[in-house]
Amino acid sequence: xxxxxxxxxxxxxxxxxxxxxxxxxxxxxxxxxxxxxxxxxxxxxxxxxxxxxxxxxxxxxxxxxxxxxxxxxxxxxxxxxxxxxxxxxxxxxxxxxxxxxxxxxxxxxxxxxxxxxxxxxxxxxxxxxxxxxxxxxxxxxxxxxxxxxxxxxxxxxxxxxxxxxxxxxxxxxxxxxxxxxxxxxxxxxxxxxxxxxxxxxxxxxxxxxxxxxxxxxxxxxxxxxxxxxxxxxxxxxxxxxxxxxxxxxxxxxxxxxxxxxxxxxxxxxxxxxxxxxxxxxxxxxxxxxxxxxxxxxxxxxxxxxxxxxxxxxxxxxxxxxxxxxxxxxxxxxxxxxxxxxxxxxxxxxxxxxxxxxxxxxxxxxxxxxxxxxxxxxxxxxxxxxxxxxxxxxxxxxxxxxxxxxxxxxxxxxxxxxxxxxxxxxxxxxxxxxxxxxxxxxxxxxxxxxxxxxxxxxxxxxx
Length: 462
Hints:
- It is a single chain.
- By secondary structure, this protein is of the alpha+beta class.
- Helix content is 50%, strand content 12%.
- The protein has 17 helices and 15 strands.
- The strands form four sheets. Strands 1, 2, 3, 4, 5, 6 and 8 form a seven-stranded antiparallel β-sheet that branches.
- α2 runs antiparallel to α4.
- The protein starts with a strand and ends with a helix.
- Mean pLDDT is 76; it is low at 1-28, 52-75 and 103-114.
């Protein structure tokens, strides 16, 4: 595989920059990270302008065919989603994180095609050009940063909303993965969220009934947490210790001497990103193996480790088809679960498994999913959805995620309630992240078309 990078013959030796033809072709995905509130607001303004310009062009085309469409349908056309995803990918930071969350948490509120195209933001972003990357490395490691490595690849392995990952080799032969934070991302979080809140008031931009305030606040809090690489290093080490030796799952260790406030260094994990394996020729046995391992891990995280990595992005899992092992990546969104909360969730899960409406209602209120002051019809709707979502826990044997229409039924029931009387409020923040984890894992099972015996995985802990 061709690479772009520095190669040094020995410690302190001269460095040579090597560029391949393939890498030059990829530079079209490079763009400097815009910095400063004014510059970033300008990019957001362009994004909104592009949305409305695209809607106008699409609207004229449909009108000429005698097919007029409402403004919201024009705004959320697939072509507009591609433009918006490209703009958010260029900006990175909080605005890209909101695009990611919208694709996961507003599915069904946004058109499916729009959510799917925004979903690409979970897997890739524009990357920093080489000069901005070199400036960042010099700021973190010093002007002679290249001397600490035998080689460093300028072509990133992955790029997301907060940083991009590069491969490097130390002089003692270790291969590292360096997660390098985009310059100015942490400082731009609050202003990005304020800019988004301002632009969200644009008439027709946000679907009626969708309150972006909780989504924006969640994105702000999560980004503040995820941009603390020292905290992530501690969380990764704690998680690795809690997981222990596992025949399938592996967590690369932190390499402390190469970590800084804005660079997280770990051992290099091999395997292929699960994000790129979804549409490929995995056998049914491999699909079942992958999904069962990730479900087993999620149950352990909650009931045994009480430490949950709450971002089930497919790009956070690397699969080695030869060994069957799965490497776990990215611990910026790791949450500790208190014993009281864990016991509440155990009680709720047991009630869902038993299809016990009375016990489910009591557990939901105890946790905070419902409140005694909520209108009765809203509480009934919430409990109905929870009992429906618990269907796999009541299934004997392997539940076939490839054949079930469960997600469609839950979505239809939720949409009906949303447009009828709505929901009284949002659950506590920690539950939102836990919900994101389990919904995300079950969606991975669905995309893998896997068969998993969830009852057997949960029962020992209930």
